[in-house]
Each structure stands twice: as C-alpha cells, then as structure tokens.
Amino acid sequence: MAFVVKKFGGSSVATPEKIYHLVDRVLAEKKPDDKIVIVVSAMGDTTDDLLTLAGRITDHMPKREMDMLLATGEQVSIALLATAFMERGQKAISFTGFQAGIRTNASFTKASILEVNADRVKKALDEGNIVIVAGFQGITDEGDITTLGRGGSDTTAVAVAAGLKADICEIYTDVDGVYTADPRVVPNAIKLKEITFGEMLELARLGAGVMQPRAVEYGELTGTDIHVRSTFNRVEGTIIRGEYTMMEEKKFIIRGVASDSNVAKIAVRGVPDVPGVAYQIFDALAKENIAVDMIVQSASNVKEKNDIVFTVTKTDMADTVGVLEQLKGKIGFVRVDVEANVAKVSIVGAGMLGNPGVAARMFGALASEKINLDVISTSEITISCLIAKEDEKKAVNVVHRFFFPTEEK
To answer: How far apart are CA 390 and CA 260, in angstroms?
Structure first.
C-alpha cells in the first residue's frame, strides 16, 4: 500500500478532456489499498482571468478581497475533478483549504501555512475516497480566506503530505524533473536524479520555476521527500530529499544555473552614514512583508553619505518605493532610483564549498560574452550576478557551458 499526495497544475485540468485524462492516469496507477490525495490548481488561465477581472474594477483591490476572489478558481477545479472520479466509479470528495484544515497567517496574497489539521482528510481516506484538495489557499484563525502566492499549490501539497505523514509528495509539472538549467532555455541541460533540499531551495528562490521555494522549505522542515515528475509521461523524475543516496549525483561542483527576470533594482541614494539607518530601511520593508536580496552598500558621491542598493521582486516594486518615500523625510536620504530592466543569474551547489575558483569561473564565463555585472552577492552555496535583462538567456547558456562542458552534446 502506498500513501501518496499528488499535485497537478492548472494545465492538467484546463478542459474536461484533460480532467478525465488525469483521472484515468491516477486510476490506472492506483493499487487497491493505495491512499491518494490530489492537490490541484485552478483550471488553465483562470487565475489570470480573475486578476484581469479585478483590474476592470480597480487598480488597487484590497488584498483580503483579492484572496476572496482568487480562491474561487480552485473550488471549480476540485468539484469537477471529484465528480469525474465518481463518474469513473471511484469514490471521491473535494475539500477547500479550510475544509482540509490548512491554517495560515494573515499575510493576504502571500500567506504562510502555520499548521495542517488533516483529521477530516484522514477520515475521508479511511472511507475509501480519493480526496481532492484545493491548492493555493488556506484560512486564518479569524476565518479569512488567504492565498499562498504564485505556485502556492506546491506548498499546499507538501504541507498536506507532511500533515498526513504520506510516503511521498509527487509534484507533476511540464518538465520531467529538476535540471541543471531550464531545458527550455538551455537545450542540453541535464536532468538530476536527486537534489538536496538546501540546493533546491536556493535554485527555487533564485528563479528555477519548477518548485515554489516555500514548498521546498516546508519539505525540509518536515522531512517530506518530494518527487518532481512530468504530467505527460511516466518516467522517473527528480527526488528532493535531505541528503544524497546515489554516488554519481555527488560529482557536480554546482547543481544548477538559475535566472530570474522578475526582479527590480532599488537604489537608495545619499543615505546618511550613521548607525541604525540600514535597520530603519529594512525593518520598514520587513513589516510590509517585502523580501529583499543582493544588498550592497557603497560610498556615495556626497560626503558622509552612502548608497544602499538591493533587489526586490517586481510585484513588490511599487510597495517598496512607497515604504521608502515615507521614510525619506525621517532618514534624510536624497532619492530612490528604480531599475526594472534587469535579471539575476545564479549558480547553486554545495560542492563549491571545497572548490576555490568557482566565482572566477562564473565571472570569466560572463566576461567571455561581454556581459557586464551590476551587483554581485554570494552565500555558502550560491553566487548571483545582476545583469541587463537582455543578456539573461545568453548568460545562462554560457555559464552552464562553463560548468557542464563534458555533458553537452
């Protein structure tokens, strides 16, 4: 008997025909005693359509009401999918995030899961149902509906798997595993059989769209293995787990190259060179739930002033500027500059810890294509460079070629 949580994206339930294809696949693979929970996203482009609809009402929809609107998309999917299973003779029942016991904080549009009380899901499974759970959503202690941000259904699936102590969480996507780079950008990217939570978390955080960072983080926190595999075939994908079990997977110095163009560079110019100013800036941003990255401080052209440069997601760009403008009079900096036409290219791998010269190789690769580096940041297992957006694809390919030369065809 297997106890599995399977997550399918919106493209897998975009039409009635695709819904029945999903149902038939699950039933063909199901053994009699298997317990299966399916987490599903909204159908096709439903979420984008709802966002467009909201835009026709206002440019500034309250975040609570936005979550109330967006959560409806998954309710359509789960009801149709549960019904399709019943039409095939399989008992099934659908649950919203609230009904599945998914409790979150009150950070509307990007809430975090605090707890999963899976008692109702367990009861339904024991009664012989395949349980269909709405991804991307939860509920606060006050009873408000929340959503988990783009890709949040991944997090739902991992959290439900952890709450149920399932054998594994399977994430079905449009690629058949985790690659050393996006295979749509780098045709010769290599599929990995395994990757650690730490490395996958960094790749996801830095732009590898195959997994949502919070989902990986939740997997690591709860020790829930994640199998990333294809919706369109039945080949083995990539297992994300705590440590490697296959010796051949340890041969790579780095595990992957990621890029992200959903970033904006924020430069706070002419910041007074006194203690506590950086704290005031980043504390104010943190209170608005704005995540920052690639922080650099340098001397300004003005005496006793500094420039503080950092990156945020483009979706947080307007809110970031708003927070900074409110601080301008209090802190006394000169101005805020914003640059949105940028991209971040990164390499990730625990192997770089014992291998000097990795940064030099990356910088040399970019220099060979005359790609200028704007901002550089590093951690124990990552190196990231901010570059012009127009150079993003070229940069990913040249860096990948430098680190994976013998595997390229």
So the answer is: 12
Kindly report, residue by residue over 95-105, the tens digit of the pLDDT.
999 999 999 99
Contact 259, 346 (CB under 8 A): yes
Which tokens in the block code for residue 134? 């709405």
Q: Are 19 and 41 in contact (CB under 8 A)?
A: no
Other residues' Cβ atoms within 10 Å of the Cβ of residue 286: 12
212-242 residues labelled b (16+ CB within 10 A) or e (exposed): bbbbbbbbbeeebbbbbbebeeeeebbbbbe
Could you give the residue ranges of the DSSP H alpha helices within 227-352? 277-287, 317-331
Determine the distance from the C-alpha atom of residue 229 to the mean position of all C-alpha atoms in its chain, rounded to a whole number.
16
CA 373 to chain centre: 25
N-term to C-term CA, the chain: 42
DSSP run (H or E) holding 8: strand 3-8
Spans of the chain, pLDDT less than 70? 247-251, 406-409
Tokens of 228: 């990333």
**Which helix (H) or strand (E) segment is 363 a member of?**
helix 358-368
**Count of residues for the chain?**
409
